[in-house]
Amino acid sequence: MPCITNIDNNTAATAICPTNDKLITLLLDDNTQPLITRMTWLDFKTCASKVNTLQTVTDNYNYTSTSFYLIDGISGETTIGITNDGLGNGELTVKNAGNPSITLYGIDGKIEFVGPLSPNNDPGTTGQILISAGASAPPTWVTQTIVSSGTYLPTLTSGSNVASSSITTCQYIRVGNVVTVSGRVDIAGSVGANTYTSIGMTCPITPNFTTCNEAGGTGSVFQDTTKLTGGFLADCADGAKIAFSFYAPDTASHNFSFSFTYKIA
């Protein structure tokens, strides 16, 4: 196996062309510093038309900052680059067609991906999260369960037998595609005598109801002797609202504390 040794510091080793596909080893050293820290470049030629280059760049020969690049001899593009700043901080970049596809930063601990992250050749789909599959298997993509909460002020729409209505700010919690809402609504009927009374209410996250059973809940009055109760169903006439109904015993305003749950889609 051919071998070059004891190269003088001023000697330029521009290229080594192996024959018969034999492995070439280049030893670079002197009595004080490994010469590799002061090299400019090395070319490894496998044939006349294909060249792969290992390039090293130093910081004015101060031995403090060194960079190594593996260059595609056909395109001239860097495919792998390793750099350091002389302060113990390194950077590794792997490129595709000359553009960084993944960069690992030792300085601040960041990893940047330009393309998809594909464990087991699976890039997942938009919105999924990566879950560990244990020590002996690659992680897998799973659909994330949405969990959120907040407050909102519903808009009321009078239905049957409503003289007046008002509502306070409500609270809600969402888990996946199911939302639970609670609050208080005040309703007065136009006519008493246990007359059917209904009102529509907007939802914090707009649903798309197609059947009445996609929502349900109850409202009750505990502040007067009537002890009224009412029920919630999805508003089949307006798929974006929920409907509350009860039987009004009189024309007084009654305060219903309520809770309902509905399916978003």
What's the short version?
With 265 residues, the protein is mostly beta strands.
Keywords:
Adenovirus Type 5 Fiber Protein (Receptor Binding Domain), 2 domains, 265 residues, disordered N terminus, ten-stranded antiparallel beta sheet, single chain, mainly beta
Please tell me about this protein's structure.
- 0% of the residues lie in helices and 48% in strands.
- The protein is mainly beta and 265 residues long.
- It has two domains: 3-127, no CATH class; 148-263, Adenovirus Type 5 Fiber Protein (Receptor Binding Domain), CATH 2.60.90.
- The chain is rod-shaped, with a radius of gyration of 36 Å.
Give the helix level as a range of percent. under 10%
Query: Number of helical runs?
Result: 0
What proportion of the residues form beta strands (DSSP E)? over 45%
The total count of strands amounts to 21
Structural class: mainly beta
Number of domains: 2
Largest β sheet strand count, sense and barrel closure: 10 strands, antiparallel
Intertermini distance: 71 Å
> Average pLDDT, to the nearest integer?
76
The ordered string of helix (H) and strand (E) elements is EEEEEEEEEEEEEEEEEEEEE
Stretches where pLDDT is under 50 for at least 5 consecutive residues are 1-64
Q: How much is the radius of gyration in Å?
A: 36 Å
The geometry reads as rod-shaped
